[in-house]
Amino acid sequence: MFDYADPAVVANIKAASGDSIRAALDTIGLRSAQATCVEVIAPGGGKVVHILQVIPDASARTDVERICKPSSYKYPRS
User: Fold this and answer.
1) Residue 24 burial (CB < 10 Å; 0-12/13-18/19+)?
2) Measuring CA to CA, which residue among 43, 40, 50 is closest to residue 8?
3) Which among 30, 34, 37, 31 is positioned nearest to 10, based on CA atoms?
4) What is the mean pLDDT of the chain?
5) pTM of the model
6) Contact at 8 Å (CB) between 39 and 63?
7) Torsion-angle region of residue 29: left (phi > 0), alpha (psi -120 to 50) or beta?
8) In whole angstroms, what is the distance from residue 18 CA to residue 37 CA?
9) Which of 35, 37, 55, 54 is nearest to 46 (CA)?
10) Half-sphere exposure of 17 (CA within 13 A, CB side)
11) Rounded CA gap, 43 and 23, in Å?
12) How far apart are alpha carbons 37 and 52 in whole angstroms?
């Protein structure tokens, strides 16, 4: 288990996975969560699926495809 608030979370995940992660799922949507998901992807790239809108400048990596798959949840109108 990894603590997302740990400043070394990306390094810890890469060490535990042998830097072999090719895909990630972002279920939070915050800029920091999106950046972490992208940064754990191994060299050579991969994919990250976000359940909320992609924040384009959350990461400068161009070798990671970022896909938004919004949920079917309908927010109530106020």
Assistant:
1) buried
2) 40
3) 37
4) 91
5) 0.85
6) no
7) left
8) 16
9) 37
10) 18
11) 12
12) 13
41/50 Cα distance (integer angstroms): 14
The C-alpha angle 33, 40, 43, rounded to 5 degrees, equals 140
Closest by alpha carbon to 61, among 46, 76, 77, 78? Answer: 46
Cross-strand pairs, 48:
24, 66
DSSP string, 12-37: HHHHHHTS---EEEESS--HHHHHHH
> In this predicted model, what pLDDT tens digit does every residue of 32-64 receive, in sequence order?
999 999 999 999 999 999 988 999 999 999 999
CB 34 within 8 A of CB 58: yes
